[in-house]
Specification:
The chain has about 700 residues and is an alpha+beta fold. The protein has three domains: about 10-195 and about 230-255, Arfaptin homology (AH) domain/BAR domain (Substrate Binding Domain Of Dnak, Chain:A, Domain 2, Up-down Bundle); about 270-375, PH-domain like (Roll), CATH 2.30.29; about 390-570, Rho GTPase activation protein (Phosphatidylinositol 3-kinase, Chain A). About 50% of the residues lie in helices and about 10% in strands. The protein contains 23 helices and eleven strands. The strands form three sheets. A six-stranded antiparallel beta barrel has the order 1-2-3-6-7-8. A three-stranded antiparallel sheet has the order 10-9-11. The protein has a two-stranded antiparallel sheet with strand order 4-5. Strand 2 and strand 3 form a beta hairpin. Helix 14 (about 470-480) crosses helix 20. The longest helix has about 40 residues, at about 110-150. The radius of gyration is 29 Å and the shape is globular. Residues about 370-380, about 585-590 and about 595-695 have low confidence and may be disordered. Keywords: Coiled coil, GTPase activation.
Length: about 700
């Protein structure tokens, strides 16, 4: 199984399960850090010691063979499977090349050592700093809380209010440190999928130049390298879109009241202090408690910090609640107390909550009063739109204008329009006093405004176009190991949509298929359109980190529908297709692309190129390298199959997105042997990320 997701809302409870999940991520990140140091050390040995090259290369190869990627979530996309398998393929390639080694490796430091060291220092180092801050604030907050809860209720109100205010401030600082740490550690876990593999990929490209006897192996590496770049670029795109949504969720969680309960398996849960009567006085010990309202089951589990006679009492105690009464302030020296009676014990159990609002929530949960279980900040929505006649007219008119002006515009549907103009368009069309006849003047509304308005309408539907009801079924279909079943299952699920939803989806996907047909000029391949329209057409009803991690599968569903548009909407589904079942417990690791089984074809030398991203896009998108040029297939269908070693369409020399860098001096000696022809389209990255990718020419 992969790493568990870390929910931002769990940081408010700070439960032992949350700490254990966080520890899993820390262990995995430390393992990655050690592995990167291992790679850097082995790479330096490879560069500096020609006579020890064989020994260093074997260790380097073995390190790659032994490492396993652990992804967040219970399933992996085909791209992630290929990325995880890539290290083993690199290892096999190094073993084959070592048999024919003849020349010294040069100029490998910039390709391998520096990017990995930068990732380790900047990304993993930032997580370590976040952990230090998180541990510091944890100790500070709980220490202050212990002192605060021990205050006598007989103190002056001004002193108590000042103490309450201080605890509230420290609590907020602790929550902020916790949220930032959770966000950063999951971000680095996702980043390593591409920022870790790309330097290795670039290093291998440079290595071929200095192995004349290994030239035949370099020919095999070409198509695999391109396929892996597609996987990396798709994974990067999915990461960018997911990261934006997760960051928004984190901000909404941060701005919400930490005492408000989020939906979960228990009606109420959190830390309580239990009064334990002793022979001489009494003691208060911290327990993690849960309460389930329907069964009235109350569970207490001693905190790991609570020790008696140096033995941690970790066994949970389960009781059936009989009654719950708030403790009078003047009847006990502690604040925020309440009493419960349980069936299994005689007498009362006195509990102390962490605050007055926390006690109120416990009392409401236990005495049957209606509690507040949802986060208002999470449920706030922008103005909703509806799937009515006005919406159909608007979508058809937008598509008509886009197709009339031509679909060769660079970044169509990716580059957004001016927000004020888009809002004015939406108000004009969907206002209550809007005229029944819809007229959009092409001279007034430019393409960016029209495409942004179309996406905004679909994004704001009260129920997403592919419905909340079928959301999980579509996700399960995309997670299937069998690419053929994915298409058949999505086909069947589309016909379960309401008629109006299916009609709108038909109109939209036919248009998107036409847009992808111009991908050679607009760069909007099926894969790129999936990244843009996946979160627009599909939304999870709950906003959690786990749901955000499924955005990549939403993109795959949209890719499948676009690719198979004519079949899905032109033919009825196969009635014998079984509906998707809940996902397996074992992650899928099948049908990864393999370099070792590829056919040998002649390949030309490569030239490093510097590729930069477009700065003004509203949604991150890959370049034309997301799918083979001239093809409407996306990685949702062909990335899990063996890629044939077919000739590739050369990149046009006048492409504005990528400019070749000067030829390195170590390539100029062989430049006269073979003419350089582009065999791989460029890949763009965001300017804030690593902009340097090497491409085979």
């Amino acid at each position: 199984m992969g790493l568990p997701t870390l929910e931002f809302s769990d940081s408010f409870l700070d439960s032992p399960e949350f700490r254990e999940r966080l520890r899993c991520h820390e262990i995995e990140l430390e393992r990655t850090n050690r592995f990167i140091k291992h790679i850097i050390k082995d790479g330096n040995m490879l560069i500096s010691a020609f006579r020890g090259l064989s020994h260093a290369a074997e260790r380097f190869s073995q390190s790659l063979q032994d490492f396993q990627f652990e992804c967040i979530g219970d399933a992996e996309t085909d791209d992630e499977i290929n990325i995880a398998q890539s290290l083993k393929e690199f290892s096999q390639l190094l073993n084959n090349m070592e048999e024919e080694r003849s020349r010294l490796i040069q100029n490998a430091d910039d390709l391998l050592i520096s990017p990995l060291e930068k990732f380790r220092i900047e990304q993993i180092g930032a997580v370590k700093e976040g952990k230090k801050q998180f541990d510091k604030e944890t100790e500070k907050y709980y220490s202050l809380l212990e002192k605060h809860l021990s205050l006598s209720s007989r103190k002056k109100d001004s002193s108590l209010q000042e103490a309450d205010s201080q605890v509230s401030r420290e609590q907020q600082v602790f929550y902020d440190a916790s949220l930032q740490y959770i966000f950063k550690i999951q971000e680095v876990q996702e980043r390593k999928k591409f920022e870790f593999v790309e330097p290795l990929l670039a290093f291998l490209q440079g290595l071929f130049t200095f192995y004349h006897e290994g030239y035949e192996l370099a020919q095999e590496f070409g198509p695999y390298k391109q396929q892996l770049q597609y996987n990396l670029q798709n994974t990067r795109n999915n990461f960018e879109s997911t990261r934006v949504e997760v960051e928004r969720l984190m901000k909404r969680i941060r701005s919400s009241d930490p005492d408000i309960r989020v939906p979960g398996p228990f009606t109420m849960e959190g830390y309580l202090y239990i009064q334990e009567k002793r022979a001489l006085g009494s003691a208060w010990t911290k327990h993690y408690c849960t309460f389930e309202k329907v069964s009235k089951m109350f569970t207490m589990r001693s905190s790991a910090e609570s020790k008696q006679n140096s033995v941690v009492n970790s066994g949970p105690e389960v009781f059936r609640l009989r009654s719950c009464i708030r403790r009078k302030t003047d009847s006990i020296d502690k604040r925020f107390c309440f009493d419960i009676e349980v069936v299994e014990r005689h007498g009362i159990i006195t509990l102390q909550a962490l605050s007055e609002s926390n006690r109120r929530l416990w009392l409401e949960a236990m005495d049957g009063k209606e509690p507040i279980y949802t986060l208002p900040a999470l449920l706030s929505k922008k103005e909703e739109t509806f799937l009515n006649e006005t919406g159909f007219r608007f979508v058809k008119r937008c598509i008509e204008l886009v197709e009339m002006r031509g679909m060769s515009t660079l970044g169509l549907y990716r580059i957004g329009g001016v927000s004020s103009k888009v809002q004015r368009l939406m108000t004009m069309v969907f206002a209550s006093k809007a005229p029944a006849s819809l007229h959009l003047d092409p001279d007034v509304w430019d393409n960016k405004t029209i495409t942004s308005g179309l996406k905004n309408y679909l994004r704001c539907l009260a129920d997403p176009l592919m419905t909340y009801r079928l959301h999980n079924d579509f996700i399960l279909a995309a997670k299937s190991d069998d690419p053929v079943y994915r298409v058949r299952a999505v086909h069947a699920l589309v016909y379960k949509l309401p008629d109006r939803n299916k009609d709108m989806l038909n109109i939209l996907t036919k248009h998107l298929l036409a847009v992808s047909g111009h991908s050679a000029t607009n760069l909007m391949t099926v894969s790129n359109l999936g990244v843009i329209f996946g979160p627009t057409l599909m939304r999870s009803q709950e906003e959690t980190v786990a749901a955000m991690m499924n955005i990549k599968f939403q993109n795959i569903v949209v890719e499948i529908i676009i690719e198979n548009c004519q079949k899905i909407f032109g033919e009825p589904p196969d009635p014998s297709v079984p509906l998707p079942q809940p996902h397996r417990t074992v992650p899928r690791r099948s049908k990864a692309i393999c370099l070792s089984s590829g056919n040998r074809k002649s390949r030309l030398l490569y030239r490093p190129t510097l590729c930069l991203a477009d700065n003004d896009s509203d949604t991150f998108s890959s370049s034309s390298s997301s799918t083979p040029t001239g093809s409407q297939e996306s990685l949702s269908s062909h990335s899990s199959e063996q890629t044939p070693c077919s000739p590739l369409t050369p990149l046009h020399s006048s492409s504005p997105l990528c400019s070749p860098s000067p030829i390195p001096s170590y390539l100029s000696r062989r430049e006269d042997r073979t003419p350089t022809v582009s065999t791989s389209p460029p890949s763009r990255t965001h300017l804030s990320e690593k902009p340097l990718l090497l491409h085979l020419l």
